[in-house]
Design brief:
The structure is a homodimer. By secondary structure, chain A is of the alpha/beta class. Chain A has 18 helices and 28 strands.
Chain lengths: 616, 616
Amino acid sequence: MADFTITFLPSRESVSAAADTTLLDAAAAAGLPLEAPCGGQGRCGKCLVKAAAGLSEPTDIERRVLSPSQVGEGWRLACQARVTGEAEVLVPYSSRAFKPTVLIEGAAREIEVEPNVRKQSFRLPRPSKDDARADLTRVMDAIGEGPLPPARLAPVRDLPRLLRSNAYHVTAVVAGGRLVTVEPGDTCDEAYGLAVDVGTTTVVAYLCHLPSGELAAVASDLNSQAQYGDDVISRIHAATSSEEDLLGLSSAVVTVLNDLVERATHKAGIPATAIYEIAVVGNTCMTHLFLGVPPAGLGRVPFVPSFRAGQTVRAADLGISVNPAASVYVTPCIGGFVGADSVGVILASELYRSGGPRAAVDIGTNGEIILASGGEIYACSTAAGPAFEGATISAGMRASVGAIDAVHIEDDVRYRVIGDARPRGICGSALVDAIAELVRVGVIADSGRMVGPQEADSLPEKVGRRLVENENGTEFVLATADEGYGGEAITLTARDVREAQLAKAAIYGGIELMLEQVGAAPDDLDELLLAGAFGNYIRRESALAIGLIPSVPMERIRSIGNAAGVGARLLLCSVSERVRAEELARRVKHVELAEREGFYDRFADAMMLRPLPAEG
Amino acid sequence: MADFTITFLPSRESVSAAADTTLLDAAAAAGLPLEAPCGGQGRCGKCLVKAAAGLSEPTDIERRVLSPSQVGEGWRLACQARVTGEAEVLVPYSSRAFKPTVLIEGAAREIEVEPNVRKQSFRLPRPSKDDARADLTRVMDAIGEGPLPPARLAPVRDLPRLLRSNAYHVTAVVAGGRLVTVEPGDTCDEAYGLAVDVGTTTVVAYLCHLPSGELAAVASDLNSQAQYGDDVISRIHAATSSEEDLLGLSSAVVTVLNDLVERATHKAGIPATAIYEIAVVGNTCMTHLFLGVPPAGLGRVPFVPSFRAGQTVRAADLGISVNPAASVYVTPCIGGFVGADSVGVILASELYRSGGPRAAVDIGTNGEIILASGGEIYACSTAAGPAFEGATISAGMRASVGAIDAVHIEDDVRYRVIGDARPRGICGSALVDAIAELVRVGVIADSGRMVGPQEADSLPEKVGRRLVENENGTEFVLATADEGYGGEAITLTARDVREAQLAKAAIYGGIELMLEQVGAAPDDLDELLLAGAFGNYIRRESALAIGLIPSVPMERIRSIGNAAGVGARLLLCSVSERVRAEELARRVKHVELAEREGFYDRFADAMMLRPLPAEG
């Protein structure tokens, strides 16, 4: 018998099929399995497809299951229709048993793309005497969703004219099973979403093509809430003291986001109205301020968030300039200082999978530590302070052009500058490097004390000459005034070392207490994951040398990049991940470090600049 | 043993109970049965009540089921707590197995009051180390609803400050299981809803107290959409020809409604913000225009509505000035010309109950006929035109002060005027009376022809003298110029008789065709219900005499008042009735009279002014 080419729409996958093959079999052969819960017996009506030619006549079974108007429009049951010639076959979303998958860089695995927002286009039958269904019913029937009513009035208002002025050829946009808008013609491919990581310092927006889950553009900027204070405590204070400041904090981040929308959509060459959904992660304070919710309980013990579950709100209500029908999903948080960003880290790192103890550390202004062990997940926050982000270090700066980002000492200091520029300051990874190297060569004792110039004799000569004493106390010159941008030397002060010590003690002490919680020692850790931008750039050797992280074999330490941002992308592209996020937020056990017995002792011990714990 | 008085709050029902009686039993004795699906074994935790004193100490079972903070706050399981003294016991809504009932005038029965919107007040436990639940979680747990998230962002934003500035004593407003707003203190009794009947000519608003279902005030006004045309056809034309007119039609009815809100709340002495929900009925065109949805498919065959299912939208989005959290429920319609008002008629008349054939006729500009028979319900609309509302009758007017509303002829004409004023015109009921009487005395033949003055000889002398001939043709003087307001005579013209004939033929023909649909004769009707204002005032004898309605024994004809308005009240006060309404809208079979064979013949036969059908 002859073979015919069957092309499946909208993907245009094609397959060669022998005459008399059912479309159900042909689709499976093309790698596009269809829904067929009844086993292809023509009872369930789930394998609905549409074709104009190339198929056998509708069977009695089809005439029973389908309405006369459906038959008239070319709708078929794929399990009944058989190949008789070349055919183009439209497979609606609801009939597909396959979903595309995507690998999001930084995520541990491929995920099935199943966005909350999806588009379906239809050429609907026109009303007739036998089919006087309401306009809305006509569309809802075609979508084939449950009886959920439209989320907004707009599509109900737009529909009557849209249908009639476009020959009943329209695209329905469905979010969470509800019709949110209708567009003329077929716009299925123009469907984007934005995954946003609202950091205390930086906001990053990932523009994703929803049907494929692929990244179309990235844009980032500083969080302009910084005008209200660098850390969350100042912002909580501002937001709860004055209604005006709450509004100011909220609109600051919305303004940044609108700018990122503009830049990302410009890069991708699409209109902002092609964005139909936004998924947001951030620490608890950030998600509260983003929604304009006063973080009234976050300012004092017992650090009560105002909301914990994920919130879905209209983008327009927040003043975000994307499609008017778009909604914003704000990821749930775990506790007062363990936010939606930690949920993102858990999703990206798959810490929820069972196995030996595994920990993830996100080193930011608020360090978050997540420990999975024996089927339980624990999370805590630790007030590391912004030292590793450069804020409390005299020559500290962010990891941008001009920042010293690596330091090595042999006979003298060697450093690397981002962008091959003259150095302007040092960023977090270089701070850890510098301290580790200075401890190694003896400039800094493991107690954190910096030796004075008068004690320089035991040091390599060129290193010793870099110690200076001035009105600020002892300083170590990393880059001389000759080398520095604008003729300024870059120095590390004794005080800088103390700041770094406090920060690292908060992180190390937190990890140790969390491990004790599950009766494990650092060496029991199967894996130690470092999240966040800092986690990406830090030299593991230096971090281990100064006891910022516990001594585990190097191969068990892994950087997982901006895991919070990856989590946001997972949440944008997959409703299953959203369900998981909501479950996680309820399930993860929130540990309040400050309430743990021995926390302050542990913290004091962790101040030591050497590999920790002291005896392996 | 001693007996103690137990008082249940908030209703303050009290009962005398012997010492050691469980509160579960005491509540049942007071006529307030509580939820106890576990049979009072302390397992389900559903019989939660709260009391400060007069009860036994919490049992081990209670300490297991309740949280320490609940126990501390005085929460008890009614099945475990035993009477030891006088006690005041708060029974939250969620623990009650009883619901109040209300008899809505015009409805066939008492209904259980179970409004979609309800309020619950709480004195919540404050956050503590052992209870660091999020603010929103704290409230949602107290509401005890499922996991439905809040419908709006506003309560999430308001909650943190409301809780802290009111000692955690707040009232939650829940609509459809979702938190819509939070108020300080206990405002449970201040909960109102508005049931609205948007008629083509008149808008009526019923202000109801939601917890009791009782009527607090009524206000009505003309529908100012009339500036776009008196009938729905003109308004459909306007709304679909111009976007401006669509907006104008929509805002016209919103303006009227806002005015009615102001008047009704003023009468009841409450603020407009005490209204938390609005339920709207109206014909299909009215509900479309109310929502600003273009009735694009209603202007021509096959009369496709834009939506059919009930729609819930924010009142604020429609510009209605009630509580900002309020929503508007627009009742589903059955078909293009059988609207939400007909759903209201079916609910109010309980036509959905099985039994012999029963019909309801709502005589308005669009007459709607609903027939229930053998478990099926059929509905049709019939273009009666506005004759019975006075619009196409030369001296026609609405049933207001100055309208002749009843006519009787013996030796001469006797009439009654509304408000004991000088007559200005005649309303529908008098039109039917006048024609019936003039046919009886021979002024009008049963073909509808009015005799000329020259044929007056066979008439009673004073009656005959009232026949005049002028440039408009023959007229019959009902009230002379001496009697009429402003010296104007009130006459019935030959042409008026033709208009009334057309209107009544449309109604009678419709009823007859509907009966044929189920193989029944008029005499088979168990009941014939007349709905609408006209149905209330019409004299059944006159209606039967001219064949406006089929000849059935008088006792089977019953006026059911403004059944559409009653339906709106049922839908406001009972979610069960809403479920029923949605089912009815899907289930009722919509009959297009014009498509029925023999419709026009039937219509012509029904023009005869005599009891119909011709032979009983």
